[in-house]
Please model this.
Amino acid sequence: MTENLAQEIREQESLAKAIIADAKTEAAKIIASAQAEAEQSIKDTKQQCHRQWRESVAKAEKEAELKAGDILEKGHKTAQEYYEKKKTSTAQVADWLVKEVMTTYGSC
Model:
């Protein structure tokens, strides 16, 4: 009976060691799976953030182009108004300049 009891204890120890080994293996698989999932989540989040950043930059660039177009159009309009306003006085200034030169240097 002592021999049978010792044999049974050895078998139970072997069974316990196998259960522990299986549990360690399963735990390692669970940990690896969790790490892979966490890394994928981080990667997805980084990609999403980058995509949102690109979209916000594109939106800002579009808005800037529209504002630049408005500013450019306003500048052209202001320049045209200034030109039209000064166009009549240009002839007067040219006449005055010719008179001054003719008075100072005489005619050829």
